[in-house]
Amino acid sequence: MKTRILSLFLAGAILLSTGVTASAARVSGSAAPKPTTSREWAVTPVRGELSFDQIAPKVRANNLTVQSMEETLASMEAMDWDKAIGELEDAIDALEGTIADLKNSTGTAKTACENLASSIAGIQSALEPLQSAGIIKDIAALGSSIYNGLQLACLNATLASMEEQLKDLKDQKNDYISKTLPDTKRQIASSISQIIIGAESLYLTILSTQLQLEALADTKAAMERTVAEMELRYERGQISQLTLTQVKNGYNSLLANMGTLGVALTSMTSSLQALLGDSITGSIILATLPTITDQDIAALSFSEDLAKAKEASYSLYTAARTVEDAEEDMEKACRESGKNSYQYKMAQHTYESAVLSEKSAIQSFEISFRSLYDQLSPALAVCTAAENDLAYEARVYQAAQLKYQQGNLSANALADAKDTYEAAKRSYASSKIDLFTTWLNYQNAVKYGVVSSGS
User: Which stretch of DSSP H or E encloses residue 148?
Assistant: First the structure.
Protein backbone atom coordinates (compact mmCIF):
# COMPACT_ATOMS: atom_id res chain seq x y z
CA MET A 1 0.00 0.00 0.00
CA LYS A 2 2.77 2.39 0.96
CA THR A 3 4.63 1.73 -2.29
CA ARG A 4 1.55 2.37 -4.42
CA ILE A 5 0.90 5.69 -2.70
CA LEU A 6 4.47 6.91 -2.90
CA SER A 7 4.73 6.07 -6.59
CA LEU A 8 2.09 8.69 -7.37
CA PHE A 9 4.58 11.46 -6.90
CA LEU A 10 7.44 10.36 -9.11
CA ALA A 11 6.04 12.44 -11.96
CA GLY A 12 7.29 15.57 -10.21
CA ALA A 13 10.84 14.63 -11.11
CA ILE A 14 10.03 14.85 -14.84
CA LEU A 15 10.13 18.62 -14.68
CA LEU A 16 13.79 18.40 -13.77
CA SER A 17 14.65 16.72 -17.08
CA THR A 18 15.84 20.03 -18.55
CA GLY A 19 19.32 18.98 -17.42
CA VAL A 20 19.99 22.44 -16.02
CA THR A 21 21.93 22.66 -12.78
CA ALA A 22 22.41 25.69 -10.63
CA SER A 23 26.15 25.23 -10.61
CA ALA A 24 26.31 25.65 -14.39
CA ALA A 25 24.53 29.02 -14.46
CA ARG A 26 25.99 32.44 -15.23
CA VAL A 27 24.58 35.94 -14.85
CA SER A 28 23.81 38.62 -17.39
CA GLY A 29 23.92 42.39 -17.07
CA SER A 30 25.36 45.38 -18.86
CA ALA A 31 24.69 48.12 -16.32
CA ALA A 32 27.69 49.83 -14.77
CA PRO A 33 28.75 47.92 -11.64
CA LYS A 34 28.15 49.45 -8.22
CA PRO A 35 29.94 48.15 -5.13
CA THR A 36 27.68 47.08 -2.29
CA THR A 37 28.21 46.19 1.33
CA SER A 38 24.81 44.74 2.22
CA ARG A 39 22.61 41.93 0.96
CA GLU A 40 19.88 43.08 -1.40
CA TRP A 41 17.37 40.28 -0.89
CA ALA A 42 14.38 42.59 -1.28
CA VAL A 43 15.07 43.41 -4.92
CA THR A 44 12.16 45.46 -6.22
CA PRO A 45 11.56 44.65 -9.88
CA VAL A 46 10.18 47.24 -12.23
CA ARG A 47 6.83 46.59 -13.85
CA GLY A 48 6.92 43.46 -16.00
CA GLU A 49 10.14 42.09 -14.46
CA LEU A 50 10.50 38.78 -12.66
CA SER A 51 12.69 38.90 -9.57
CA PHE A 52 14.53 35.87 -8.22
CA ASP A 53 12.67 35.89 -4.90
CA GLN A 54 9.35 35.50 -6.75
CA ILE A 55 10.23 32.07 -8.12
CA ALA A 56 9.47 29.86 -5.11
CA PRO A 57 6.11 31.51 -4.28
CA LYS A 58 5.03 31.33 -7.93
CA VAL A 59 5.97 27.66 -8.24
CA ARG A 60 4.11 26.75 -5.05
CA ALA A 61 1.02 28.73 -6.04
CA ASN A 62 0.75 28.10 -9.78
CA ASN A 63 2.74 25.03 -10.87
CA LEU A 64 0.29 22.35 -12.04
CA THR A 65 2.39 19.41 -10.86
CA VAL A 66 2.74 20.97 -7.42
CA GLN A 67 -1.02 21.56 -7.26
CA SER A 68 -1.69 17.96 -8.26
CA MET A 69 0.63 16.59 -5.57
CA GLU A 70 -0.90 18.84 -2.92
CA GLU A 71 -4.41 17.72 -3.88
CA THR A 72 -3.35 14.08 -3.62
CA LEU A 73 -1.88 14.73 -0.19
CA ALA A 74 -5.05 16.52 0.88
CA SER A 75 -7.05 13.48 -0.23
CA MET A 76 -4.83 11.21 1.86
CA GLU A 77 -5.17 13.46 4.90
CA ALA A 78 -8.96 13.43 4.50
CA MET A 79 -9.04 9.66 5.05
CA ASP A 80 -11.20 8.94 8.16
CA TRP A 81 -9.83 5.69 9.53
CA ASP A 82 -11.99 5.75 12.67
CA LYS A 83 -15.15 6.00 10.57
CA ALA A 84 -14.03 3.17 8.29
CA ILE A 85 -13.22 0.98 11.30
CA GLY A 86 -16.54 1.88 12.95
CA GLU A 87 -18.50 0.95 9.83
CA LEU A 88 -16.79 -2.44 9.66
CA GLU A 89 -17.41 -3.03 13.38
CA ASP A 90 -21.11 -2.23 12.87
CA ALA A 91 -21.27 -4.70 9.97
CA ILE A 92 -19.67 -7.37 12.16
CA ASP A 93 -22.21 -6.69 14.94
CA ALA A 94 -25.09 -6.99 12.46
CA LEU A 95 -23.72 -10.26 11.10
CA GLU A 96 -23.32 -11.68 14.61
CA GLY A 97 -26.98 -10.86 15.25
CA THR A 98 -28.01 -12.62 12.07
CA ILE A 99 -26.04 -15.70 13.07
CA ALA A 100 -27.62 -15.71 16.52
CA ASP A 101 -31.12 -15.54 15.01
CA LEU A 102 -30.30 -18.33 12.59
CA LYS A 103 -29.04 -20.55 15.41
CA ASN A 104 -32.27 -20.05 17.35
CA SER A 105 -34.39 -20.86 14.29
CA THR A 106 -32.71 -24.16 13.41
CA GLY A 107 -32.99 -25.88 16.82
CA THR A 108 -32.61 -29.66 16.83
CA ALA A 109 -33.04 -29.75 13.07
CA LYS A 110 -29.69 -27.93 12.83
CA THR A 111 -28.09 -30.78 14.76
CA ALA A 112 -29.55 -33.22 12.33
CA CYS A 113 -28.24 -31.13 9.48
CA GLU A 114 -24.76 -31.15 10.89
CA ASN A 115 -24.88 -34.94 11.37
CA LEU A 116 -26.12 -35.51 7.84
CA ALA A 117 -23.90 -32.94 6.14
CA SER A 118 -21.12 -35.48 5.62
CA SER A 119 -23.41 -37.84 3.73
CA ILE A 120 -25.47 -35.60 1.49
CA ALA A 121 -25.63 -38.31 -1.17
CA GLY A 122 -27.32 -40.67 1.28
CA ILE A 123 -29.85 -38.04 2.22
CA GLN A 124 -30.73 -37.46 -1.40
CA SER A 125 -31.24 -41.21 -2.04
CA ALA A 126 -33.49 -41.43 1.02
CA LEU A 127 -35.82 -38.74 -0.20
CA GLU A 128 -37.68 -40.95 -2.69
CA PRO A 129 -39.02 -43.62 -0.27
CA LEU A 130 -39.86 -40.99 2.33
CA GLN A 131 -41.76 -39.05 -0.24
CA SER A 132 -43.56 -42.21 -1.38
CA ALA A 133 -44.56 -42.83 2.24
CA GLY A 134 -46.46 -39.53 2.24
CA ILE A 135 -44.22 -37.54 4.62
CA ILE A 136 -43.15 -34.90 2.16
CA LYS A 137 -43.73 -32.11 4.69
CA ASP A 138 -41.20 -33.57 7.08
CA ILE A 139 -38.73 -33.85 4.23
CA ALA A 140 -39.29 -30.18 3.37
CA ALA A 141 -38.61 -29.25 6.99
CA LEU A 142 -35.45 -31.32 6.93
CA GLY A 143 -34.36 -29.60 3.69
CA SER A 144 -34.96 -26.24 5.30
CA SER A 145 -32.84 -27.24 8.27
CA ILE A 146 -30.08 -28.41 5.95
CA TYR A 147 -30.21 -25.09 4.12
CA ASN A 148 -30.13 -23.11 7.35
CA GLY A 149 -27.21 -25.15 8.60
CA LEU A 150 -25.19 -24.57 5.46
CA GLN A 151 -26.10 -20.88 5.53
CA LEU A 152 -24.96 -20.69 9.14
CA ALA A 153 -21.61 -22.22 8.24
CA CYS A 154 -21.21 -19.73 5.40
CA LEU A 155 -22.06 -16.78 7.66
CA ASN A 156 -19.58 -17.98 10.28
CA ALA A 157 -16.88 -18.09 7.63
CA THR A 158 -17.85 -14.58 6.50
CA LEU A 159 -17.72 -13.37 10.09
CA ALA A 160 -14.24 -14.78 10.57
CA SER A 161 -13.10 -13.08 7.36
CA MET A 162 -14.57 -9.73 8.42
CA GLU A 163 -12.92 -9.94 11.83
CA GLU A 164 -9.59 -10.57 10.10
CA GLN A 165 -10.24 -7.57 7.83
CA LEU A 166 -10.96 -5.44 10.89
CA LYS A 167 -7.65 -6.44 12.43
CA ASP A 168 -5.84 -5.65 9.16
CA LEU A 169 -7.62 -2.30 8.91
CA LYS A 170 -6.48 -1.31 12.39
CA ASP A 171 -2.92 -2.34 11.53
CA GLN A 172 -3.12 -0.34 8.29
CA LYS A 173 -4.32 2.68 10.24
CA ASN A 174 -1.31 2.55 12.53
CA ASP A 175 1.08 2.06 9.59
CA TYR A 176 -0.65 4.81 7.59
CA ILE A 177 -0.43 7.37 10.40
CA SER A 178 3.07 6.50 11.57
CA LYS A 179 4.75 5.82 8.21
CA THR A 180 2.81 6.12 4.95
CA LEU A 181 1.41 9.62 5.47
CA PRO A 182 4.59 11.22 6.90
CA ASP A 183 6.70 9.45 4.25
CA THR A 184 4.44 10.79 1.52
CA LYS A 185 4.58 14.30 2.96
CA ARG A 186 8.36 14.20 2.94
CA GLN A 187 8.48 12.88 -0.62
CA ILE A 188 6.08 15.55 -1.84
CA ALA A 189 8.09 18.26 -0.07
CA SER A 190 11.25 16.90 -1.70
CA SER A 191 9.61 16.83 -5.15
CA ILE A 192 8.38 20.41 -4.77
CA SER A 193 11.81 21.61 -3.66
CA GLN A 194 13.35 19.95 -6.74
CA ILE A 195 10.88 21.78 -8.98
CA ILE A 196 11.72 25.09 -7.27
CA ILE A 197 15.45 24.44 -7.63
CA GLY A 198 14.91 23.60 -11.30
CA ALA A 199 13.05 26.88 -11.86
CA GLU A 200 15.76 28.85 -10.05
CA SER A 201 18.40 27.16 -12.16
CA LEU A 202 16.55 28.06 -15.34
CA TYR A 203 16.37 31.67 -14.17
CA LEU A 204 20.13 31.77 -13.74
CA THR A 205 20.75 29.95 -17.02
CA ILE A 206 18.58 32.45 -18.88
CA LEU A 207 20.68 35.25 -17.42
CA SER A 208 23.79 33.38 -18.52
CA THR A 209 22.46 32.95 -22.05
CA GLN A 210 21.56 36.61 -22.25
CA LEU A 211 25.09 37.43 -21.19
CA GLN A 212 26.48 35.19 -23.92
CA LEU A 213 24.27 36.87 -26.49
CA GLU A 214 25.55 40.27 -25.37
CA ALA A 215 29.10 39.04 -25.80
CA LEU A 216 28.30 37.74 -29.28
CA ALA A 217 26.65 41.04 -30.17
CA ASP A 218 29.89 42.87 -29.27
CA THR A 219 31.87 40.32 -31.25
CA LYS A 220 29.50 40.86 -34.17
CA ALA A 221 30.11 44.62 -34.08
CA ALA A 222 33.86 44.05 -33.97
CA MET A 223 33.70 41.57 -36.86
CA GLU A 224 31.63 44.01 -38.90
CA ARG A 225 34.42 46.52 -38.51
CA THR A 226 36.90 43.86 -39.53
CA VAL A 227 34.85 42.87 -42.58
CA ALA A 228 34.61 46.51 -43.67
CA GLU A 229 38.37 46.89 -43.27
CA MET A 230 39.05 43.65 -45.18
CA GLU A 231 36.78 44.72 -48.02
CA LEU A 232 38.65 48.02 -48.29
CA ARG A 233 42.00 46.23 -48.28
CA TYR A 234 40.72 43.79 -50.92
CA GLU A 235 39.65 46.69 -53.13
CA ARG A 236 43.16 48.10 -52.77
CA GLY A 237 44.68 44.74 -53.67
CA GLN A 238 46.27 44.21 -50.23
CA ILE A 239 44.58 40.85 -49.51
CA SER A 240 43.29 37.99 -51.62
CA GLN A 241 39.68 37.11 -52.23
CA LEU A 242 40.24 33.90 -50.26
CA THR A 243 41.22 35.89 -47.16
CA LEU A 244 38.18 38.11 -47.51
CA THR A 245 35.95 35.05 -47.94
CA GLN A 246 37.38 33.47 -44.78
CA VAL A 247 36.59 36.61 -42.79
CA LYS A 248 33.04 36.75 -44.14
CA ASN A 249 32.52 33.05 -43.44
CA GLY A 250 33.57 33.63 -39.84
CA TYR A 251 31.05 36.47 -39.60
CA ASN A 252 28.26 34.32 -41.05
CA SER A 253 29.11 31.52 -38.63
CA LEU A 254 28.81 33.99 -35.78
CA LEU A 255 25.36 35.03 -36.98
CA ALA A 256 24.30 31.37 -37.08
CA ASN A 257 25.55 30.81 -33.54
CA MET A 258 23.62 33.84 -32.34
CA GLY A 259 20.47 32.48 -33.98
CA THR A 260 20.91 29.08 -32.33
CA LEU A 261 21.49 30.69 -28.95
CA GLY A 262 18.42 32.86 -29.43
CA VAL A 263 16.26 29.80 -30.08
CA ALA A 264 17.67 28.11 -26.97
CA LEU A 265 16.91 31.22 -24.93
CA THR A 266 13.30 31.24 -26.11
CA SER A 267 12.93 27.54 -25.25
CA MET A 268 14.37 27.99 -21.76
CA THR A 269 12.18 31.02 -21.15
CA SER A 270 9.08 29.05 -22.14
CA SER A 271 10.10 26.23 -19.79
CA LEU A 272 10.54 28.68 -16.92
CA GLN A 273 7.15 30.23 -17.59
CA ALA A 274 5.58 26.76 -17.56
CA LEU A 275 7.19 25.96 -14.21
CA LEU A 276 5.90 29.24 -12.80
CA GLY A 277 2.41 28.66 -14.16
CA ASP A 278 2.59 31.82 -16.29
CA SER A 279 1.46 32.35 -19.86
CA ILE A 280 4.02 30.86 -22.23
CA THR A 281 5.26 33.66 -24.46
CA GLY A 282 8.95 32.76 -24.82
CA SER A 283 9.89 36.24 -23.64
CA ILE A 284 10.70 37.37 -20.12
CA ILE A 285 12.45 40.26 -18.35
CA LEU A 286 14.55 39.25 -15.34
CA ALA A 287 15.37 41.60 -12.48
CA THR A 288 18.79 42.17 -10.94
CA LEU A 289 20.00 39.34 -8.71
CA PRO A 290 20.51 39.81 -4.97
CA THR A 291 24.10 40.70 -4.05
CA ILE A 292 26.11 38.47 -1.72
CA THR A 293 28.73 40.14 0.46
CA ASP A 294 31.55 39.02 2.71
CA GLN A 295 29.36 39.92 5.70
CA ASP A 296 26.76 37.41 4.53
CA ILE A 297 29.32 34.63 4.34
CA ALA A 298 30.94 35.55 7.65
CA ALA A 299 27.53 35.38 9.37
CA LEU A 300 27.03 31.71 8.45
CA SER A 301 27.21 29.05 11.16
CA PHE A 302 28.50 25.84 9.60
CA SER A 303 27.53 23.49 12.45
CA GLU A 304 24.01 24.90 12.83
CA ASP A 305 23.43 24.93 9.09
CA LEU A 306 24.66 21.35 8.76
CA ALA A 307 22.20 20.20 11.42
CA LYS A 308 19.33 21.93 9.57
CA ALA A 309 20.42 20.45 6.25
CA LYS A 310 20.56 16.91 7.63
CA GLU A 311 17.12 17.32 9.16
CA ALA A 312 15.71 18.54 5.83
CA SER A 313 17.42 15.88 3.67
CA TYR A 314 15.01 13.43 2.09
CA SER A 315 17.80 10.97 1.29
CA LEU A 316 18.83 10.79 4.95
CA TYR A 317 15.18 10.50 5.95
CA THR A 318 14.67 7.48 3.67
CA ALA A 319 17.92 5.93 4.90
CA ALA A 320 16.67 6.18 8.48
CA ARG A 321 13.31 4.71 7.46
CA THR A 322 15.09 1.77 5.84
CA VAL A 323 16.85 1.08 9.13
CA GLU A 324 13.54 1.22 11.01
CA ASP A 325 11.86 -1.19 8.58
CA ALA A 326 14.80 -3.59 8.69
CA GLU A 327 14.72 -3.55 12.49
CA GLU A 328 11.00 -4.34 12.52
CA ASP A 329 11.53 -7.22 10.10
CA MET A 330 14.32 -8.57 12.30
CA GLU A 331 12.15 -8.43 15.42
CA LYS A 332 9.28 -10.11 13.57
CA ALA A 333 11.56 -12.90 12.37
CA CYS A 334 12.77 -13.40 15.94
CA ARG A 335 9.21 -13.68 17.26
CA GLU A 336 7.94 -15.99 14.55
CA SER A 337 10.97 -18.16 13.83
CA GLY A 338 13.35 -17.76 16.76
CA LYS A 339 16.90 -16.45 17.01
CA ASN A 340 18.41 -19.66 15.68
CA SER A 341 16.38 -19.62 12.48
CA TYR A 342 17.85 -18.71 9.13
CA GLN A 343 15.01 -16.19 8.69
CA TYR A 344 16.19 -14.25 11.73
CA LYS A 345 19.84 -14.42 10.67
CA MET A 346 18.99 -13.11 7.22
CA ALA A 347 16.92 -10.28 8.71
CA GLN A 348 19.75 -9.45 11.11
CA HIS A 349 22.26 -9.09 8.27
CA THR A 350 19.78 -6.95 6.34
CA TYR A 351 19.44 -4.69 9.37
CA GLU A 352 23.20 -4.36 9.78
CA SER A 353 23.51 -3.51 6.09
CA ALA A 354 20.86 -0.78 6.44
CA VAL A 355 22.68 0.70 9.43
CA LEU A 356 25.96 0.83 7.53
CA SER A 357 24.24 2.34 4.48
CA GLU A 358 22.74 5.07 6.64
CA LYS A 359 26.14 5.88 8.15
CA SER A 360 27.64 6.04 4.67
CA ALA A 361 24.86 8.34 3.48
CA ILE A 362 25.42 10.67 6.43
CA GLN A 363 29.15 10.73 5.82
CA SER A 364 28.69 11.50 2.12
CA PHE A 365 26.16 14.20 2.93
CA GLU A 366 28.51 15.91 5.39
CA ILE A 367 31.38 15.86 2.88
CA SER A 368 29.20 17.39 0.17
CA PHE A 369 27.88 20.04 2.53
CA ARG A 370 31.41 20.96 3.62
CA SER A 371 32.37 21.31 -0.04
CA LEU A 372 29.48 23.74 -0.63
CA TYR A 373 30.60 25.80 2.36
CA ASP A 374 34.24 25.84 1.31
CA GLN A 375 33.36 27.16 -2.16
CA LEU A 376 31.86 30.40 -0.82
CA SER A 377 35.02 32.34 0.05
CA PRO A 378 36.87 31.53 -3.21
CA ALA A 379 33.81 32.57 -5.22
CA LEU A 380 33.72 35.87 -3.34
CA ALA A 381 37.44 36.43 -4.00
CA VAL A 382 36.96 35.87 -7.74
CA CYS A 383 34.06 38.31 -7.75
CA THR A 384 36.13 40.95 -5.93
CA ALA A 385 39.00 40.53 -8.38
CA ALA A 386 36.61 40.92 -11.31
CA GLU A 387 35.19 44.07 -9.76
CA ASN A 388 38.69 45.54 -9.39
CA ASP A 389 39.51 44.63 -12.98
CA LEU A 390 36.34 46.35 -14.13
CA ALA A 391 37.28 49.51 -12.27
CA TYR A 392 40.68 49.47 -14.01
CA GLU A 393 39.18 48.92 -17.48
CA ALA A 394 36.70 51.73 -16.84
CA ARG A 395 39.60 54.14 -16.25
CA VAL A 396 41.37 52.85 -19.39
CA TYR A 397 38.22 53.43 -21.44
CA GLN A 398 37.80 56.94 -20.04
CA ALA A 399 41.38 57.72 -21.02
CA ALA A 400 40.75 56.35 -24.52
CA GLN A 401 37.69 58.59 -24.88
CA LEU A 402 39.77 61.62 -23.91
CA LYS A 403 42.49 60.71 -26.41
CA TYR A 404 39.88 60.26 -29.13
CA GLN A 405 38.38 63.66 -28.39
CA GLN A 406 41.88 65.18 -28.63
CA GLY A 407 42.45 63.45 -31.98
CA ASN A 408 45.17 61.17 -30.65
CA LEU A 409 43.25 57.89 -31.05
CA SER A 410 41.45 56.32 -34.00
CA ALA A 411 37.76 55.36 -33.96
CA ASN A 412 38.66 51.68 -34.28
CA ALA A 413 41.04 51.89 -31.30
CA LEU A 414 38.32 53.58 -29.25
CA ALA A 415 35.86 50.84 -30.24
CA ASP A 416 38.39 48.20 -29.18
CA ALA A 417 38.81 49.93 -25.81
CA LYS A 418 35.05 49.95 -25.39
CA ASP A 419 34.85 46.23 -26.26
CA THR A 420 37.45 45.49 -23.59
CA TYR A 421 35.49 47.51 -21.06
CA GLU A 422 32.24 45.75 -21.95
CA ALA A 423 33.99 42.39 -21.65
CA ALA A 424 35.15 43.37 -18.15
CA LYS A 425 31.57 44.27 -17.25
CA ARG A 426 30.35 40.88 -18.39
CA SER A 427 33.17 39.14 -16.56
CA TYR A 428 32.17 40.91 -13.37
CA ALA A 429 28.50 40.07 -13.96
CA SER A 430 29.46 36.44 -14.55
CA SER A 431 31.48 36.31 -11.34
CA LYS A 432 28.50 37.74 -9.47
CA ILE A 433 26.24 34.97 -10.72
CA ASP A 434 28.93 32.40 -9.88
CA LEU A 435 29.01 33.75 -6.35
CA PHE A 436 25.23 33.85 -6.11
CA THR A 437 24.98 30.31 -7.48
CA THR A 438 27.45 29.07 -4.89
CA TRP A 439 25.51 30.86 -2.19
CA LEU A 440 22.21 29.48 -3.49
CA ASN A 441 23.55 25.92 -3.55
CA TYR A 442 24.53 26.28 0.09
CA GLN A 443 21.17 27.82 1.05
CA ASN A 444 19.26 25.09 -0.79
CA ALA A 445 21.25 22.53 1.15
CA VAL A 446 20.26 24.18 4.41
CA LYS A 447 16.62 24.75 3.45
CA TYR A 448 15.84 21.60 1.45
CA GLY A 449 18.66 19.23 2.37
CA VAL A 450 19.79 19.09 -1.26
CA VAL A 451 23.57 18.82 -1.55
CA SER A 452 23.66 16.94 -4.86
CA SER A 453 21.35 15.20 -7.31
CA GLY A 454 19.02 12.85 -5.49
CA SER A 455 19.58 14.33 -2.03
Answer: helix 136-175
Number of H helices, E strands in the chain: 14, 2
CA 395 to chain centre: 47
Give the C-alpha separation, 61 to 70, whole Å. 11
Stretches where the chain sits below pLDDT 50 are 1-46, 108-110, 112-131, 133-140, 453-455
CB contact at 8 A, 23 and 244: no
At 94, give phi and psi (nearest 5°). -65, -40
pLDDT value, residue 36: 35
Q: What is the pLDDT of residues 280-297, one digit of tens each?
A: 998 889 998 989 999 999
- What digits encode the pLDDT tens for the residues 72-127? 999 888 888 888 788 878 877 887 787 787 677 655 444 544 444 444 444 444 44
3-class secondary-structure state, position 342: helix
Cβ proximity of 446 and 304 under 8 Å: no
* Residues counted in the chain: 455
> Measured between alpha carbons, how far is residue 438 from residues 135, 191, 199, 307, 371 in Å?
98, 22, 16, 19, 10
Contacting residues for 422 by C-beta, under 8 A, at least 6 apart: 30, 214, 218
CB distance 325 to 350 below 8 Å: no
Q: Are 355 and 327 in contact (CB under 8 A)?
A: no
> What are φ and ψ of residue 56, in 5° steps?
-60, -50
CA 433, CA 446: separation in Å to the nearest integer?
Answer: 20
